[in-house]
Amino acid sequence: MGSFKAGLLAAATCLLAACGQQDKPLLVTIKRPPEGEVVHMTALLSQARLSVIDGCVRVVPDSETRVGYLGVFPYGFAIEAADEGFVVLDDRGRRWGATTSPRNIGGGELEAIPVNEVTDMGRCEGPYWIVAP
Question: Any signal peptide, and if so, which residues (predicted)?
Fold first, then answer.
């Protein structure tokens, strides 16, 4: 029984320490919208970068040196560690963007966002860019 407890303790320690894996940044997403509701945003950031800053996925316009915007992604988007940085996946699991390459990012800017409309934002702060793929 002692080896079982030791194994369980080792597994729990590994989970808590993430077994040496890179910490996954917080990807804020819109909560599941009500059935039939559609939202449109019409702005475009040309050649913007996805950056992980202080554990938050941010959208940084190419011409800016500041921290840009906290990206608020559509419902169902996710983030995964990659060989270099992180990859953002769309709601079908397809690669949408990565922290290693700039891309055009549609959407719109908001100075404030109702916290009940998004997943947990943790310590991530605005301004916000509502990402429209």
Answer: 1-17
Say how many CA atoms lie within 13 Å of 28 toward its Cβ. 28
Tokens of 1: 């029984």
Q: Token pair for residue 40?
A: 């449109």
Domain parsing of the chain, residue ranges = 23-132
Burial of 5: CB neighbours in 10 Å, binned 0-12, 13-18, 19+: exposed
> Backbone dihedral region of 93: left (phi > 0), alpha (psi from -120 to 50 degrees) or beta?
left
Per-residue pLDDT tens over the stretch 41-90: 567 788 889 999 889 999 998 766 677 899 999 989 999 999 888 999 99
Report the Cα–Cα distance between both ends of the chain, in Å, rounded.
Answer: 53
Q: What's the whole-model pTM score? A: 0.70
Distance, CA of 25 to CA of 86 (rounded, Å): 9
Amino acid occupying residue 29 = T
